[in-house]
């Protein structure tokens, strides 16, 4: 099932609540079993339950890939231990004042893009802990790169106002095809409405058929 349309808490912004890599996915502790099954079937990975800093906004506060996970410094010892143990991935903490890591960093297993004014300590942490090349830049001239795009190892789908120059830079950095789309019936910040890995994706329940087709094609998960 390459792509599935879902909601959580009656909310179509499912990318805000779900964190996914090619090895695992995290969903809120109180998510229903039906959503756990649907996410697992779509992404073809184990689905684990967690919170971060007491929040259910896992997609906003976590950044990571198949090599590691970075959590904000507000995470409790219990949350860190639970996520590390459940995923089998090394966990690092970022203690900067801005902690919406999922919104700030666009990353897959090979590369990462952060905004031009990103904290140098965050750039170093992403490079060293997630073992990727890190570049600075914008998407749609927006510095919060993580909220503006979704990337896996097959493709990248970005904010509809991404410039031609940015598309070229993204394609060169990640070395994969890049396309643009919206999600949830015209919403431009695609990461908010999508959680994906290289096997499949889940999108918000308000996503239209044409958007689903565009997202599926952009991420290279058609027929996976």
What does this structure look like?
The protein has 224 residues and is an alpha/beta fold. It is built from nine helices and 15 strands. Helices cover 31% and strands 24% of the residues. It has a three-stranded mixed β-sheet with strand order 1-15-14. Strands 2-3-4 form a three-stranded mixed β-sheet. The longest helix has 11 residues.
List the helices and strands and how they pair.
Layout: E1 3-6, E2 19-20, E3 25-28, H1 33-43, E4 47-50, H2 58-61, E5 63-65, E6 68-72, H3 77-87, E7 91-94, H4 101-104, E8 105-107, E9 111-114, H5 120-130, E10 133-136, H6 145-148, E11 149-151, E12 156-158, H7 164-174, E13 178-180, H8 190-193, E14 194-196, E15 201-204, H9 209-218
Parallel strand pairs: 1-15, 3-4, 6-7, 9-10, 12-13
Antiparallel strand pairs: 2-3, 5-6, 8-9, 11-12, 14-15
What is shown here, in short?
This protein has helices spanning 33-43, 58-61, 77-87, 101-104, 120-130, 145-148, 164-174, 190-193, 209-218; strands at 3-6, 19-20, 25-28, 47-50, 63-65, 68-72, 91-94, 105-107, 111-114, 133-136, 149-151, 156-158, 178-180, 194-196, 201-204.
Order of helices and strands: EEEHEHEEHEHEEHEHEEHEHEEH
Radius of gyration: 16 Å
CATH architecture: 5-stranded Propeller
Q: What is the CATH H-level superfamily?
A: L-arginine/glycine Amidinotransferase, Chain A
Sequence stretches where pLDDT stays below 50 over 5 or more residues: none
Shape: globular
Number of domains: 1
Question: What's the number of helices?
Answer: 9
Quaternary form: single chain
- Supply the CATH class: Alpha Beta
Q: What is the averaged pLDDT score?
A: 96
**SS class:** alpha/beta
Biggest sheet record: 3 strands, mixed
Distance between the termini: 8 Å
Strand content: 15-25%
Which fold name fills CATH's third level, the topology? L-arginine/glycine Amidinotransferase, Chain A
Strand order, sheet with most strands:
1-15-14
Query: Would you count the extended β strands for me?
Result: 15
């Amino acid at each position: 099932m390459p792509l599935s349309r879902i909601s959580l808490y009656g909310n179509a912004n499912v990318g805000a609540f779900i964190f996914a890599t090619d090895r695992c996915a995290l969903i809120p502790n109180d998510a229903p079993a039906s959503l756990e099954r649907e996410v697992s079937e779509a992404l073809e990975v184990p689905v684990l339950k967690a919170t971060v800093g007491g929040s259910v906004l896992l997609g906003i506060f976590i950044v990571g890939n198949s090599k590691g996970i970075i959590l904000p410094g507000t995470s409790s010892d219990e949350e860190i231990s639970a996520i590390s143990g459940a995923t089998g991935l090394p966990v690092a903490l970022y203690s900067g004042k801005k902690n919406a890591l999922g919104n700030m960093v666009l990353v897959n297993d090979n590369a990462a893009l952060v905004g031009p004014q990103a904290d140098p300590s965050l750039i170093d942490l992403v490079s060293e802990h997630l073992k990727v090349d890190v570049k600075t830049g914008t998407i749609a001239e927006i510095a919060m790169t993580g909220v503006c795009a979704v990337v896996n190892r097959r493709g990248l789908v970005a904010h509809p106002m991404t410039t031609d120059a940015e598309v070229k830079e993204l394609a060169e950095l990640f070395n994969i095809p890049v396309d643009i789309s919206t999600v949830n019936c015209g919403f431009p910040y695609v990461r908010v409405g999508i959680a994906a890995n290289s096997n499949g994706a889940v999108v918000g329940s308000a996503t239209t058929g044409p958007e689903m087709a565009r997202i599926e094609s952009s991420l290279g998960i058609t027929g996976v």
